């Protein structure tokens, strides 16, 4: 039954998730997907890392999406992440002015990825973070996690999610400050397995 | 020794049986696959062993995951929703029209959001360097499309009927014909990537990816319906497929207060 009956009062059942598979390459990644920050913005941060499987092997076919608030903690409302040229149909890239808050990047052959975005501001009760959604061949349902940036220890200590985790698990959600960039590895399984989230 | 289809069939049957036992024991219906579904071999090393940490969104309605990225007309070109017109010539194959609505769990339309699709060509070959299946590439078909849902949550694509294709999960493994879909809702928590199948495909019983959805009713929701009214005279056959996004979103919270 693929026509969903919305006439009744109850909730309708969801469409099941499936893996992204290995062949999304012409469809989902786009030039500049990882460069979310407007050009020359002083609050730009670079976050990079590796995605690894249960044996520690890098994933050359994972797709990462990052979604975050602007430095003032506001939700970005601008479209134009995938801005196109109506003549050629090709990608123009972001306009370098507006902040869409959303980025998409494929891991390279080493399982490495990066995004350059704006340092997120705090919202609600949480310490500032970037929301992350991970897709990969072999992953039947995508995985959500968060990248918290180090620095404000008081804010991290008060964060409602981080407070619930033991020290080892908590550490998987906090990027490491490398000076020029932040390092955030994603371990799908095994030693140092990243904390993944389920929203209810 | 390579796994045979028979081995995989037995594993799938065992998974189905285990699910039925869980149901009989009072466990809830499982609308989505479990991430550790071994008959799909690539899942073995790529699923977390630790349980996901539950986040109660009602405790923090400001969390950024309860909003979604925005997409607009400048993210598209006029022929992004017609995969048969993206090259100088006509692609080979049977033209199809695929249309439906994107809804939330309340049955309300998801408006103005991005729908992306990708698929194999009519010979079952993807335009992708890692794809080594020895079927012909079609110079007039890349197999990717994009659109925004309208005011009623509707989407519509014109494309080519994709072919089934072999893969290396086990010996003689074939995927039923399918179109990959990527969807955004009104909240990032509703993000969905999935696959749409075509009715009556003889490969259904053999495919561990389809059967990773162990609930039979949920599996049915992945299969489009042939709809004659959607067929375009002298041009294409029509398939209807509605998509329901799971996951909490901000509107629930407002109504729940
Ligand atoms: Fe596929």
TrEMBL record, chain A:
InterPro entries reported in the protein's UniProt record: Intradiol_dOase_C (IPR000627), Intradiol_dOase_core (IPR015889), Intradiol_RC_Dioxygenase (IPR050770), Protocat_dOase_a (IPR012786)
Record GO terms (molecular function): ferric iron binding; protocatechuate 3,4-dioxygenase activity
EC number: 1.13.11.3
Gene3D superfamilies per the UniProt record, alphabetical: Aromatic compound dioxygenase (2.60.130.10)
Positions of the Intradiol ring-cleavage dioxygenases domain: 44-190
The protein's enzyme class: oxidoreductase
Alphabetized UniProt keyword annotations: Dioxygenase, Oxidoreductase
Domain of life: Bacteria
NCBIfam families per record: protocat_alph
Sequence similarity: Belongs to the intradiol ring-cleavage dioxygenase family.
Alphabetized PANTHER family for the sequence: DIOXYGENASE, PUTATIVE (AFU_ORTHOLOGUE AFUA_2G02910)-RELATED, PROTOCATECHUATE 3,4-DIOXYGENASE ALPHA CHAIN
The protein, known as: Protocatechuate 3,4-dioxygenase subunit alpha
TrEMBL record, chain B:
The keyword Ion transport is annotated on this UniProt entry: no
Oxidoreductase keyword on record: yes
Gene3D superfamilies assigned to the protein according to its UniProt record, in alphabetical order: Aromatic compound dioxygenase
GO MF annotation terms: ferric iron binding; protocatechuate 3,4-dioxygenase activity
Domain Intradiol ring-cleavage dioxygenases: 98-126
Keywords: Dioxygenase, Oxidoreductase
GO BP terms in the entry: 3,4-dihydroxybenzoate catabolic process
InterPro entries membership: Intradiol_dOase_C, Intradiol_dOase_core, Intradiol_RC_Dioxygenase, PCDO_beta_N, Protocat_dOase_b
Cross-referenced Pfam families: Dioxygenase_C (PF00775), PCDO_beta_N (PF12391)
PANTHER family: DIOXYGENASE, PUTATIVE (AFU_ORTHOLOGUE AFUA_2G02910)-RELATED, INTRADIOL RING-CLEAVAGE DIOXYGENASES DOMAIN-CONTAINING PROTEIN
NCBIfam families per record: protocat_beta (TIGR02422)
Family the entry assigns: Belongs to the intradiol ring-cleavage dioxygenase family.
Protein name listed in UniProt: Protocatechuate 3,4-dioxygenase subunit beta
Organism: Streptomyces griseoaurantiacus M045
């Amino acid at each position: 039954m693929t026509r969903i009956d919305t006439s009744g009062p109850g909730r309708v059942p969801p469409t099941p998730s499936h893996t992204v598979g290995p062949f999304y390459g012409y469809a989902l990644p786009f030039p500049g997907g990882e460069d979310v920050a407007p050009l020359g913005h002083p609050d730009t941060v670079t976050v990079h890392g590796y995605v690894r499987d249960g044996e520690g092997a890098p994933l050359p076919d994972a797709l990462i999406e990052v979604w975050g608030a602007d430095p003032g903690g506001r939700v970005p409302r601008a479209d134009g992440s995938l801005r196109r040229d109506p003549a050629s149909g090709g990608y123009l890239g972001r306009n370098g002015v507006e902040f869409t808050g959303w980025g998409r990047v494929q891991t390279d052959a080493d399982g490495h990825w990066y995004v350059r975005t704006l340092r997120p501001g705090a919202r609600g009760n949480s310490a500032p973070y970037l929301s992350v959604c991970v897709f990969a061949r072999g992953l039947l349902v995508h995985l959500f996690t968060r990248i918290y940036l180090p620095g404000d220890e008081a804010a991290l200590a008060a964060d409602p999610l981080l407070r619930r985790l033991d020290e080892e698990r908590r550490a998987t959600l906090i990027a490491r400050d490398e000076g020029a960039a932040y390092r955030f590895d994603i371990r799908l399984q095994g030693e140092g397995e990243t904390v993944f989230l389920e929203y209810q | 020794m390579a796994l045979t289809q028979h081995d995989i069939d037995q594993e799938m049957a065992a998974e189905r049986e285990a699910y039925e036992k869980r149901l009989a024991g009072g466990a809830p219906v499982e609308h989505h696959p479990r991430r550790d579904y071994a008959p799909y071999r690539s899942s073995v090393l790529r699923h977390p062993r630790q349980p996901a940490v539950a986040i109660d969104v009602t405790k923090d309605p400001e969390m950024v995951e309860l909003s979604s990225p925005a997409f607009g007309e400048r993210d598209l070109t006029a022929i992004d929703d017609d995969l048969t017109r993206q090259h100088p010539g006509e692609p080979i194959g049977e033209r199809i029209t695929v249309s439906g609505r994107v809804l939330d769990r309340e049955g309300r339309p998801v408006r103005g959001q991005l729908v992306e699709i990708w698929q194999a060509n009519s010979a079952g070959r993807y335009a992708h360097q890692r794809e080594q299946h020895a079927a012909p590439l079609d110079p007039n078909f890349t197999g990717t499309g994009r659109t925004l849902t309208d005011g009623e949550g509707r989407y519509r694509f014109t494309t080519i009927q994709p072919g089934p294709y072999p893969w290396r999960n086990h010996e003689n493994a074939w995927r039923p014909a399918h179109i990959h879909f990527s969807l955004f809702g009104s909240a990032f928590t509703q993000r969905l990537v999935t696959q749409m199948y075509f009715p009556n495909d003889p490969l259904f019983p053999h495919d561990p990816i389809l059967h990773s959805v162990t609930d039979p009713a949920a599996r049915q929701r992945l299969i489009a319906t042939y709809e004659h009214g959607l067929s375009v005279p002298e041009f294409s056959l029509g398939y209807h497929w509605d998509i329901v996004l799971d996951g909490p979103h901000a509107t629930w919270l407002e109504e729940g207060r």
